[in-house]
Amino acid sequence: MVDTSEETDYFRRVGDNCTTGNCTKCFQMLNQNPFTVCHKKVSPEQFCDKIWAGDLHYKDHECDFLAAYVAICYTHNLCINWRTPEFCPLKCPPGKEYHPCVSTCKTKTCQNREYYEESTCSYIREECVCKSGTILHRADSAFCVTEEQCVCTDNEGRARAPGEVWNGSNKGCCMYKCMENGSIIAVEPDCSEVPLPICEREGEYVLDVIEEGACCPKKMCECNLTICDNEVPTCENGNKLVIGYSTISCCPEYRCECDTMACPTVVPHECREDQFLVEVREDKSCCYSFLCVCESCIEPIPSCNDGEILAVDLNSTQRCCPQYHCVCDVNLCPVANIECTHGTVLVKENVPAQCCPEWKCECSCQNSSVPFCQVGEIQVEDPNFTSFCGCTQYFCKKADVCLFQGVTVLSPGQSMVQYFEGDLCYTVQCLQAIDIATGFHAMDVFTVNCSEKCGAHQVYVPSSDPHICCGGCKNVSCTFTSENGTVDIYRVGSTWVSNCTRYDCVETAVGAVVLGSGVVCPPFNESECIQNGGNVQSYIDGCCKTCKEDGRACKRVTIRTTIRKDDCRSSAPITVYSCDGKCPSATIFNFNINSHARFCKCCRESGLQNRTVQLYCTRNSTFVDYAFQEPMDCSCQWN
């Protein structure tokens, strides 16, 4: 009897089921996690018995089998996300992406986008849909486009966006453009961006070539032999003329090559024992000659160890195979990468006949680490520490003190005063008892309210004495009582006058205080002021007098102006002096000449002085010195 049980794995037979065939692999696939949600609707046993066992295609194509099972599950509205990029991936066309569970009945397209409403079907399905931001061009099309590209459709059914330009002809050049309103117009081709080739070869020029189906002529380099100026050389005896071409020129190149039949007979010479004779031809020579060359070196070049460099024997440099040897250079030795334990140090040991030293760890307690203790801690020897080298280790232990706010150390029985911002002051007392929470001695902290009502011109200043808890009020501004009884407050640095007395608010070590001094007036001649046409005016609250001129007397005045000279000017306005004012004039009848005589004085300079200022020139970005004269003083002088 022939055993045909294996034939069920390779041949499809009508009536095969899981009773006569092996369905173990089928059950293993359907019992994976993504498919278990569908077992109550579609039995894996029945599906394997009816589909797997009797169909050879599904046994060879597992992804098709699982897709068939999921398709039945979709009819029960069960979403199964079973495909991955590594397992049974579904490749979508460009512009689309895979969705495992699609429930919409209709797809949004350019044709229905204005009135499209999403609707849900009675079943779900897996499908390749348009990516986010795109929709289907047409219901019978596989292309996904943006909604902007729905404005126009060319004669081949492709979507076109507003402003897009394309060639509507397969062989000719018919350029069209999509407008904002959806209309399509014919436009001229834009050939401004046609690349212009760089003709680098000698004898080339740019030629326009019209290709079939192209809108713009293609520019290419062509050879023009009429502009080639290569001269044909005259070859000497023993040479012949040869014509060739190079990659950098399209013009023919002429050269003379050797004629070996015209070469003289050469006698070979003897070579050294480490050389052999070869026949060579030198540059620009037509004939061959003999040359001695070296044979291959048999002795290998030595391999150097760490820290050694390869050197050549100077006495053998003229031979074909020089002699090499290794020379020690300790600077090239590798750095030791040994980590020594606590209590040991790294020690270098030189080894005979070896370039680089060896490193090892030896006992040394000098480098034993000493811990850095915090405030309130002390260093103590660790009695439980043992070392191979007999070294001692220390650790930090809390001292028998009180630690206040992590920075202040108090001995038992000692007290201190601590002030903080606000009205509270703390008195700290260090006790003999130990605080279990911190490990330090416990502290009693007493609070004192140091609130004190200070004036509007005062601030509260804490006590600078460590044994006094509260401080006092300190003046930060000055108070002054006027004659009418009003009280004014002045800042430090302020100055005021009252009853011909000058007062200053100054800062001192104890606060702001008022210092008074009498007002000192400069000398003043009231009659001279009136005689010169001035007005007597008082200032500093009537304590002093001054003469105010009417501004018309001749005097030296200042003017702020910007000096300009050609393209040069001063970088800022400059103060210059000039004469301005009124001078006396008169007309008197002269009886001798029987006419009026006129007398005039002008406001003019009394002495001049030279002055130089610096001007910046914008033309060449340089500075130049400019000199001018200005009056030292002004007065009324006869014209």
TrEMBL record:
Keywords: Disulfide bond, Secreted. Gene3D superfamilies: Laminin. InterPro entries: Cys_knot_C (IPR006207), Fn1-VW_OTOGL (IPR058755), Mucin_vWF_Thrombospondin_sf (IPR050780), Ser_inhib-like_sf (IPR036084), VWF/SSPO/ZAN-like_Cys-rich_dom (IPR014853). GO terms for cellular component: extracellular matrix; extracellular space. Residues 554-639 form the CTCK domain. It comes from the Eukaryota. The keyword Cell wall biogenesis/degradation does not apply. It holds the Pfam family Fn1-VW_OTOGL. Its main location: secreted. It is found in: Secreted. Disulfide bonds join 568-617. PROSITE patterns: CTCK_2. This is OTOGL protein. It comes from Atractosteus spatula. The gene is Otogl.
